Amino acid sequence: MKNLKKLLCLLLSLLLMTQATFAALAEDAELETVPEAETAEGTEEEEIAFPDELIVGHPTITKGDFFTELFGNDTADIDVRALIHGYNLVNWDQNQGVYVIDPTVVVDEQLTMDELGNKTYTLVLADDLYYSDGTQITAWDYAFSLLLMMEPEIEKLGGKIYRAEHILGYDEYIAGRRKAIAGEEVPYNESVLGGVDVIDDFQLTITLDHEFLPYFFETGLLLCVPYPISVIAPGCKVYDDGWGIYIGNEDKSIEEPLFTADLLRETILNEETGYNTHPSVVSGPYTITSWDGVTGHFEINPYFKGAWFHNTLPGGDSPTSYEPMLDAEGNQMTDSAGNPCYLVKPTIEKIAFTEADNDTLIQKLADGELHLVNKVTYGPTILDGMMNGGEHGIRFQNYPRIGLAFLTFTYDWPTVHDMQVRQAIAWCMDRDALTNKYCGDPESGMSFGVRVDGYFGIEQWEYLLVTHQIDYPVNFLEDDLHSGNSEEEDLTKKYKNRYVRTQADYDAAVAAWETLSLDNLTVYEVNLDRANALLDDAGWTLNKNGEPYQPGVDAVRCKMIDGELISLELKMMYPEGNHMAEYMQEDFIPNLNQVGITLELVPTPMQDLLYSYYRQTERTTDMIYLATNFHVIVDPSITYSTDTTKNHQIWNNTYSDDEDLYYRAVDMRKTEPGDIFDYVTKWVSFQERYNEVLPTIPIYSNIYFDFYTEQLQNYFVTSQVTWSQAILQSFFGLPGSTEDAEEEMGDEDDGFFDDDF
After folding, report:
1. Residue 505 belongs to what domain range?
2. Residues 489, 564: one domain?
3. How far apart are alpha carbons 319 and 727 in whole angstroms?
4. What mean pLDDT is reported for the chain?
């Protein structure tokens, strides 16, 4: 792990030096390509023509799931959702590394707890939230979203419903909905979701079930974006008769329920008008005007109030509107850490989002066919942009990935169900070579990827803490928190593992953090002897004739399973056109062949691959190669659930059945909020079991690169989660305009902008 840390430090140093070099080249190019305007008589000052539409490219094609993750969760689709859906009840506070109530949406909140330990959040909503058609957003919209996301009818459409066990009364409500769908009589207590109440148009309560708690990211359980019932379920209405919420007919004289799978199939999945691919009424900064299966076009939502930003704003003045958030008395609002809050509205009128091919994207940026490319991973493309982009006015930013590339298994197939088989495959994969070839340039020795041995990315805060790359959350408790404070004990508990009283306590806390590491993870390097031994131990000792397997003679190992001779003739699906397949032919398949495993690589269009990965179509291969970016909240108890009683397994894309892995994931989840040390300790335990069981084989995490035209100003992706959030602050302008404006502002805005940027 020390070598990994050194590699990352060296890599980042190289990137900083290289970026500084090419920034200088870009400035030189700027002087040549943007001459001073002529002022002689008879000439006019030349006007700079900026693009009418920002064209954004992404190496992964959008799948068209712009509604929710219920039908898939492609990273490009996630970016689109952030562009068109807004006003989430909670937001990720990058300053504190926690979810907090979004002050643009919730103007007042209250938390209470009953004698059983159920926690009720009472939320008062702002009255100035509107959809893109001008319709006001109320508490009823959030209630509809919660009900819709967990609706069993969604399963009939091929979707995966939201498992909301954290909401009180969820199990009873879902049981009732299933009975109603089956035509059975439903008791009243099962006909309503009792854990949610709409008090009035701008006030609702959400009660968390004590049996689900504690939950480390507790506030994140309130995640909810409003969706328009008039579009998704026309003729339907959310009701609250005092005991909970439910969906019924708006016209009560109609006895037959309108809220059915047939209705949702038409309103959500219709290929031309369905809300999944063509959401017509939205709440985010942009609206989608068209999508043809590859390219989506977006325009500013004129009713968008603004996105919440605090002191992570980068430096510089611009046409971007940074509007102070004021309370009812007109005072500047602050977040829970005391940072000033601002609303940001986009100024780029139109955006196009499309697929970008690694082999051509730099040239397309140079030719003006693209203006921004997000999340570039492929090493040769990165080096091309770094080496040749400056002369074309192409800039770049780089940032570590919160995710990884991996090889996932169709775990329930007999070929790869044995843990020993998956481990043997890992011992045949030269992951360092694959990483360095795909994410870098072996000839120069530069690579922008790092082999990982667990279920994590190199930018995850848990990983950074365990590898000692960021400071431990241990600080001295401030005296003013204790003087005359009767709630001293509660404060100490609240800031568990963050605050200490004495130097001895501080040293002990730091020493405890120092004991945490990933040193117990097995580093699977090429070791064919170990692979052969594992396969022998697992009983893969026959050839295709049912006779003893002979190394060097027989091409493939077999095993008798339930009376059938199963052979290790495997297939692996990979994204069509992905260069990793070329490197696997060199650094993976030959090793497999030597231990009696054959592997056929199956190129597949990305959309079809994702359908297979999410099991929306029948699996046809033993393995799939792909990559993922984690949510801010990573909950492996969902990803690796073995709970089949509540249909959890539909979220377990591998269908892994290891109870110990699932137990450790649940144990990690059930950590008191704020108890960071306990959570990370459990995170390490989970990684150790994952590393042994290998439901997937982790390959690499990497440094992402965004390349963009020098005319795109105020673009700071490194301070946001993704490009579709960073773009809200951006605008088209001449290079240097941001810096010039910043100098003019002087010192009065020092508290507004973050000097780190």
Report:
1. 468-514
2. no
3. 13
4. 86
